[in-house]
Amino acid sequence: VIATPGGVVSDPATFNQLLSHCTTVWLQADPEDHMKRVLAQGDTRPMAASKEAMEDLRGILAGRAAFYSKAQLRLDTSAQALEPSFGLLRQMVRAALQLPA
To answer: Is the pTM above the cut of 0.85?
Structure first.
């Protein structure tokens, strides 16, 4: 498993290597869920002192969506707890790799 930062799509060479050699999954979430998760981790850097933080985040996600959509699999994790999301992710990946459930 390689967990990349969201900005990996900004480096075409690296992103194309991942697409060519890995089973890729877009873990998608609404901007509000992204923000809640970042803040819950205690990380306020990306949005510190910005009144337009949510609008900036929406723009970033919208700008990257075309790249993210190149992933083989997509899982929307919005408003879902970790355990159900992980269970769905596991099922999707095992099916894609033709592994027993």
So the answer is: no
